[in-house]
Design a protein that fits this description.
Rossmann fold, two-stranded antiparallel ribbon, 33% helix, binds guanosine-5'-monophosphate
Length: 174
């Protein structure tokens, strides 16, 4: 499927989760057999030429794309989780949301020192979530130089924020 065909499967929902937000709902794409397969193929195409020993995905939608991509690339998958989900000692990063804060947690024993990790999420907006994920992975010893997204919202500063941290953002669609 072309990026345009994939984009047509993403539903824009005005006013969710709050007034003024145009939420990009990827669930119609996930439910569409060719859309799901095509989105993973497109992410794998973006990953070609990027050296990686593991894929890390951000809960929850980053788990869907990240796990499928890891299988496609023949790599393992490392989850970056919401608070309180992991049964072992974790490291955590807090980050700002438009209203309030959020936290991601990682079991650092899942990362080998010097391992190149490809960070995956469904959507890049301000870059706060991906930056927190990158920081966690680096604190655990990973090298993180590339991040993959299905959607980049180009009017928001996520790509530039990641570039400032030495991470190149790649996206299937804008
Ligand atoms: P950021 O931290 O870059 O501002 O926001 C990106 C994070 O919030 C991602 O984890 C993404 O899943 C979620 N997110 C923010 N806006 C949207 C949206 O419109 N659609 C979807 N699917 N996720 C969003």
């Amino acid at each position: 499927m072309t990026p345009e065909e994939l984009k047509a499967l993403v539903r824009t929902v005005p006013g969710f989760p709050q007034p003024g937000i145009q939420f990009r709902d990827i669930t119609p794409l996930l439910a569409h057999a060719k859309g799901l397969a095509g989105s993973i193929t497109a992410l794998a195409d973006l990953a070609r030429g990027v050296e990686a020993q593991a894929v890390a995905g951000i809960e929850a939608r980053g788990f869907i794309f990240g796990t499928a991509l890891a299988l496609e690339l023949g790599l393992g998958f490392v989850p970056l989780r919401k608070p309180g989900k992991l049964p072992v000692a974790t490291i955590s990063e807090d980050y700002a949301l438009e209203y309030g804060t959020a936290r991601l947690e990682l079991d650092p024993t899942l990362i080998e020192r010097g391992e190149r990790v490809l960070l995956v999420d469904d959507l890049l907006a301000t870059g706060g979530t991906a930056t927190a994920g990158m920081r966690l992975l680096r604190r655990a010893g990973a090298i993180v130089e590339h991040a993959l997204f299905l959607i980049d919202l180009p009017d928001l500063p996520g790509r530039a924020a990641l570039a400032d941290e030495g991470v190149a953002a790649h996206a299937v669609m804008a």
